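Q: Sequence in, structure out?
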Amino acid sequence: MDETIPERTVRMHPSDKPWMTSFIKTKIKARQRAFSRTDHVRYEQLCVTISRLISEAKTSYYRSKAKDLRTTNSAKWFKSIFSLLGIKNGNNPLGKTSDDNILGLAEKLQQAFIKPWENLPPNNELDINLMDQLLRNTTVYTSVAIYWTSQELSKTSKPQESDR
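A: Exactly. Output:
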């Protein structure tokens, strides 16, 4: 059996990211060899390949992580989203904020969702090409960007001495 399927040892470390595979590790090793041998062309090729492989592995990992949780177990879905965003307590990621800041944030979020559709006449069927064009011309905010914005808001909205 060892002749048809040879045994290979791949070392995994506790500090390895969950999407790190043995194939990516071998490519990294080859990249390091090319660097030490001053083979710049091979090194650059491997850098591009490794970046692409890691990007695909991350995407695959996060997709598989959240695959069915949204429809089957909403509690686990939100818990995994909060853990991926680095939020320890899912109850209030904004911390203590004033009502004005929350209203301002709510207004910004509402505008972000409404903006692509605001110039359309009501009760008209949407043209697919028009919808595609509107969505391409709109800034999309990721959940990570929203989280970091909320963190910045919570830093700037600490209660003043006069508010206590």
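The radius of gyration is 24 Å.
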